[in-house]
Every structure is written in structure tokens, then in C-alpha cells.
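Sanity check record (used in CI):
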Amino acid sequence: MLSIEGIHVSIQSAAVLRGLSMTIPDRTMVGLVGRNGAGKTTLMRSLMGHLRPSQGRMLFNGCDLSTLASHERARLGIGYMQEDRGLVPELTVEENILLPVWASRTLSASERLAFVYGILPEIKEMRHRRALLLSGGQQKLVALGRALAVGTRLLLLDEPFEGVAPALSKRLAEVILKLKASDLSIFISQSDLNHSRRIVDLEYTIERGANIGSVQP
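Expected output for Branched-chain amino acid transport system ATP-binding protein:
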């Protein structure tokens, strides 16, 4: 599904990723664990085209992602849940969910909304509210819904449990576990994998932008 081969990424001349390599097989859930500043978010942003590697390759089903613009990656079926949620404050919940669907041009808005609301019925109730009026936890749910709307093949979840209440963490874990039973591949990053270690198929550890090990729990 996704092969990351020796990528190097710098931000303002500071090296963040240093020859990182990993594989996310089809229909698996892969965890990436590392302390804050290890390079987890930089990797996610590189996969989505927000940062460009200076070396290495990122292949999605054989397609070199570096040749594609950020919005084109949505058309491949990649959904991205940002650590900071990244919602547009003035747009409604439903409009935020549909943003990547509009970019894909190949997905049915009504079908994707039905799918998202079926998995996350609680956000359907707030679909007409503007994102800026939501709590941080509610925004996390909407960010997950937006990733689900377009992530028909691969979900990138960056620190989904960070900064949320225990009840919401439990709810997010339930949803992610349910998704694991689908045809999706899931790549989830965390400072620790306490929330998901029991459900990941493969776990990578990152330190200072490089792999330091992988294990099958």
C-alpha cells in the first residue's frame, strides 16, 4: 500500500527526518511511536505534500507521491487527520467534512456524508454549527470525520488521542477499532501507543527522525 524509502526532510535548514523508511501493508493498522519532536508530524505532512523530501521516495501503490500536488493525494483515497485538527473556523461541520471530497472530484458527497455520519452519528447532530463554536474534543471528531470522508484506502491519523478527555479517547479508540475491520489501511502516530497497542498489526519507533526499530505486538 505505502512504502517510505529513506526520506530526508528539513524545515528551515534543520534536518527533521533522516533516512526514514517503513512500509504500511494493505488492510493493516500500523503504529508510529516517538516522543514529541521525533518527526512524526513531519512525516505525515510530507506524505500529504505539505513538506517535500530532499531525498528518498514515498510510493503509494507504486505511484510516487512527490510528483503529485497536495490536493491530488486526496483523489488517491488518502485521508488525513491533523494533530491540530486544521478545521476552517468559519465553515460548518458539514462543509469542513466535505472540503477534501470537493477536491477529489470523483466521490459522491451524499454517499461520503452518509458513511461518515454512520460511523460518527454524534457529529451529524452538529453538522450545521460552525467549527469555531465546537469544543476541542468535538473538533477532533470532525477532523476524523473529514479524514474518513475522503480516506477510502488509507487513513493518516496524527496524534488522535492528544489533548482529549478520557471519555473521548475511549470513543475514538472504538471508532478506530471498528475501522480496522474494514478494507482500510490505517497509519496512526502517538507519543505512546497505550491507546492502540493492542490493535495495531505493526509498530515502528522513531527517534530524531530515523527508525530505531519495529515490532509486531
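The longest helix spans residues 136-150. If this sentence no longer matches the regenerated C-alpha cells, the check is flagged for review.
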